[in-house]
């Protein structure tokens, strides 16, 4: 949502930078559940926009691709990272943090999440090509060609998200589906 504050606007033709008062912020999250639901909602929103292909500018495709990849990476880390940091939200621990009963299928969700994490965030020893190498910061990997199969990636993660969401959304009740 827009707020007043200083930022920059770049003209498409002249590439001049001029000052313009605009600031945006993400929606407030009340707890860790809302953080995960936000990630799920934004992933689905970006995937929907990529499927629609209704661009005002050709670079809109890149914005939605990067948005999709960012939220996908965040969610596979949540679902399957075997070595989360102590500040990371994780599918095996969020239930205790939120004072909820974990789904009966939690071990299966985590096992499938680990598989996705290994597929899309492989170590350099496994050949690299992780989402984070193309997104996280400027790396030499970025010039290597990479197709992102959005339909396949979505089909792989959606059953896991639906199961997690079914248990989290009922306790959240504030964020609306995108």
Question: What can be said about this structure in brief?
Answer:
With 178 residues, this protein is mostly helical. It contains six helices and two strands.
Structure characterization notes:
- The chain is mainly alpha-helical and 178 residues long.
- The chain has one domain (28-172).
- 50% of the residues lie in helices and 10% in strands.
- A hairpin with a 6-residue loop joins strand 1 and strand 2 (17-24).
- The model is unreliable at 1-8 (pLDDT under 50).
Note the main attributes of this structure.
2 strands; disordered N terminus; 178 residues; mainly alpha; two-stranded antiparallel sheet; 6 helices; single chain
Mean pLDDT: 85
- Element string (H = helix, E = strand): EEHHHHHH
Helicity, as a percent range: 40-55%
* Percentage of β-strand residues: 5-15%
Count the domains. 1
SSE layout:
Elements: E1 2-10, E2 17-24, H1 32-52, H2 60-80, H3 94-97, H4 106-120, H5 131-135, H6 150-172
Antiparallel strand pairs: 1-2
Helix pairs in contact: 1-2, 1-6, 2-4, 2-6, 4-6
């Amino acid at each position: 949502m827009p707020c007043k504050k200083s930022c920059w606007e770049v003209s498409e033709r002249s590439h001049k930078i001029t000052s313009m008062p605009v600031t945006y912020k993400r929606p407030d999250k009340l707890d860790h559940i809302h953080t995960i639901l936000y990630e799920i909602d934004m992933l689905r929103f970006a995937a929907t926009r990529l499927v629609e292909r209704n661009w005002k500018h050709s670079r809109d495709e890149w914005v939605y691709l990067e948005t999709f990849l960012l939220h996908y990476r965040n969610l596979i880390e949540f679902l399957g990272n075997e070595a989360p940091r102590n500040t990371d939200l994780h599918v095996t621990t969020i239930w205790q943090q939120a004072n909820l009963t974990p789904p009966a299928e939690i071990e299966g969700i985590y096992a499938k999440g680990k598989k996705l994490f290994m597929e899309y965030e492989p170590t350099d020893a496994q050949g690299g090509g992780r989402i984070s190498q193309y997104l996280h910061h400027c790396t030499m990997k970025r010039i290597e060609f990479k197709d992102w199969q959005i339909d396949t990636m979505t089909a792989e993660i959606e059953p896991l998200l639906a199961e997690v969401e079914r248990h989290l959304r009922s306790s959240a009740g504030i964020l609306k589906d995108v």
